[in-house]
Design goal:
87 residues, alpha+beta
Length: 87
């Protein structure tokens, strides 16, 4: 099970959503707006910015963030939420 970081919790608060551990075993986080689930985000087998920062340092995490943003250019709701909350 994925541990939701303080980074993600603070980012969620900034945009007015709530995050909880995902009920989907292949995802990290379920995102709720006004009590209603709007998306499941973050593939469980992949890293994210706060995890990389904790495990490998900020410089490494910054590089991974840059590469993530280069690979993910779409702006669907799930994509937006993943970029905002996990990267």
């Amino acid at each position: 099970m994925y541990h939701i970081t303080d980074y993600t919790k603070s980012k969620a608060e900034e945009i007015g959503v709530e995050v909880r551990p995902s009920t989907n075993p292949s995802k990290k986080i379920d995102v709720f707006c006004d009590g209603e689930k709007v998306a499941s985000i973050g593939a469980i087998g992949y890293g994210d910015f706060p995890t990389f920062w904790k495990e490998k340092g900020k410089a490494y995490a910054d590089r991974r963030r840059k590469l993530y943003h280069q690979r993910h250019q779409k702006e669907s709701l799930g994509e937006y939420l993943a970029k905002w909350l996990l990267w």
